[in-house]
Each structure stands twice: as structure tokens, then as C-alpha cells.
Amino acid sequence: MGLEVRPVASRRDLTTFIKLPWRLYRNEPNWVPPLISDRRRFLDRDKNPWFEHGEAEYFLAWRDGRAVGRITAQIDRLLNEFQDNRWGLFGFFECEDDQEAADALFAAAEQWLRERGRDRMVGPMSFTMNDENGVLVEGHELAPIILTDWTHRYYPGLFEGAGMIRAMDTLMWHLEIQGRDRVHPSIWRVAERVESKYGITVRPMRKKDINAEIDRFLEVYNEAWERNWGFSPLTETEVRHYAQTLKPILDEHWAFVAEKDGETVGAALSVPDYNQVFKTMNGRILPFGWLKFLRNRGKIDRVRVFALGVKREWQHTGVAARFYQLHFDSAEVTPQTYGEMGWILETNKSMNRAMEGMGGRVVRRYRLYERLLDPAARPSYPGAADASASEPAPQEPGAPASGPGSSEAT
Questions:
Q1: Structure pTM?
Q2: Residue 355: CA atoms inside 13 Å, Cβ hemisphere, count?
Q3: What digits encode the pLDDT tens for the residues 259-297?
Q4: Do the beta carbons of residue 79 and residue 87 sit within 8 Å?
Q5: Where is the N-acetyltransferase domain positioned along the sequence (predicted)?
Q6: 3-169 matches 174-365 in fold
Q7: Cα(290)–Cα(220) distance, rounded to whole angstroms?
Q8: Residues 6+ apart with CB under 8 A from 375
Q9: In terms of C-beta density within 10 A (0-12 exposed, 13-18 middle, 19 or more buried), how is residue 357 classed?
Q10: Beta strand pairing status for 66-76 and 54-63?
Q11: Is residue 133 within 8 Å of 166, Cβ to Cβ?
């Protein structure tokens, strides 16, 4: 029968699309299975609010009647309007070590995007930079932290073999949140004067008031992150959807709001690394998944800095340093004593320097690729010879983490 790529056309096809990674990663101990029910809801065009401003097609590659790869092609109209671009996106890429199959998947996504007038295809993003994104190029020896992917070592070769070019790298930083002497003393000095000098108070988010807290987070998010490469603002519907998804794993020890005279000026949200629990569940809640969840959640020893942002006019006040200080306080009363901060854009020199000052080290690097579809389009990668004019300006430490699923403080 040979190789064929065709759209997902039935519930059975969608199940194959969702479950393909279980076969591809069956011999990879560091891969963490996602919850099948969560993936199904996320891909449901009637349930995921991203589809209010986006459209997508799902493709499967078949060889001799067996699924050997998958990909999505998508358009985010909100991204295009906000960034004033004609980007097309792709995501959810998984494939056997088979260049012919990878080429065919990329070709199917490209054709779908060309038909809709896109000038490039950028990814992988599932579905945006607010979600899991990138191909892992460094850090395969580590199990992935929550809201990140672990992808095969051979994937960069498949992408580059198909003519994809580097668009942007993102970094994940390991941070110990014990042993305050590892941190540059100036950070503690700055943190201590946030309230006395500027009148800014920082308090834990209230889980029982989650809707109002999410409103405060959205107020910060869409302002503080707006200059990020690939940023697409979240709608109120999307934020409330995220809130319901995250509420079961939200811990008030790790979520903070900064306020000045009733105005929200910053927000920080870290979540315990529930990947350490999901690893034991094999993607299923029933019949015994919840029991494993309850039994193992007390063993989680690290957190993921999911999002950390400060409005631009308040970035000079040290609010980010105060957020960092409170993470150390929380580590003294919870089982979590270390974590990861990310992703952070490689171009964000100020935030990466801040991570060094916190005693951090880069432990993972993810890469986003692109293929230019219009001869007039220029590469996104700041290191490209003809792309210097489009390089994002570095932002101050304590601006944002790069969004739900990404915690860059650009």
C-alpha cells in the first residue's frame, strides 16, 4: 500500500492520533504519557476555546495500513492580528524514524497552510506558544517537567532533513529553592524593599476565589507578555478554561499576586510537577488512575514556574525578586525544594542573566522550526543574516513568563 497521509476523519482516527505516541515511546523511560481524556478534550473543536479564533486540520501518515506519524496544521487568527503577520503553524508532530513519512507530513501541513494564504509554517506548537511547544534538542537525559514535552532524539534530524530551519530556541532553567546563599545578595535586598519603598504587597492566590484571581492574572498576562516572539494573547474564555484545568493541581503555596492600591501589578504561578504522578497512570484516570494520583501526589519534590509576569511600568520595583523570595519561603514548608523556570526565549538576555544570578543552570533546550512559503518572507531566527531587523528587543527581568505552559519572564 505504501505511504499515505490523510486527514483525521473519524473518532477512530482521532483515537489513533492521540494514542500513537504510546507505541513510538514504548522503549523510552523518560517519556510521560499525557492523560488521554485531556488530549481528547483539547483536540475537540467544540470544547477547546482556542477554536473561537483558530482553525486546524489533523493528519495521520499511514504505511501499509499502520499509522507511522501525525501532525496538525493550524491558523491562529488572533496571533496573526496581534503580530500583524501571516504565520501558519504546525504541531503535535510525532513520527517513526522515517524521513519519507516526516517529509510527507510536513508537505501535507504546508499544502493546507498555502491554501489559506500563509507565508510560513512555524512550530511545533500545540496549538500556540501558550501550550507545549518545540522539539527537545538538549536535556534528553531528564524526565520532562509538567507542561513540557519529551521528544525523540532523532526529531531534529527529521526536521532538518525536511528542510526546516531554526526559528527560535527556548530554555529551561533548573533552580534550587533552598540554600539562599546560592542567590546573589542583591536579589534579596531588592525583594525586601518592594513593600516599604513602593507600597506593593504580594500575597498568595486564593484557590476558593479562582475566577477573580484568574481575572487578575489575565490583566497582567496580556500586557506583560505582549512583546514576546510568537505571543498570542489569551481570551477571557481561554483563561477560564485554563483555570478549570489547573485548579485540581493548584497549590496556594506556589501562586502569588502583587498589588498596589487595588491594582494588580504582577502575578506568579508555579505548579507542583504532577508529571511525577502522571508517569504512574499511563494516561488513564479509570479504573485506578485516581488512586495512583492520590497515593503519589505527596511525593512530588519539584515545581514548574508556569508563569511569572510584572506589568512594564512596575518592572523596576523588584516585584519579580519578591516572587523569587516567596518561592524559597514555600520550599521550607512543602516537599518541593527545587524546580524549573521556563521556557525563556534565547533572545531574552536580561531574564537569562537573572536566572544566572539566581544560581540557575540551563537543563533543557527546545527548538522551534519554520519553513518559508512565500519568497518574500524572511527567516524568524535572530541569527539569520537577513533577519536582524526583526530580532525581539530584550526585556527587563520580571516582565513575564511566556505564558501558560511556559514561564519565561521576558
A1: 0.88
A2: 29
A3: 999 899 999 989 899 888 888 878 777 555 656 666 767
A4: yes
A5: 200-384
A6: yes
A7: 34
A8: none
A9: middle
A10: antiparallel
A11: no
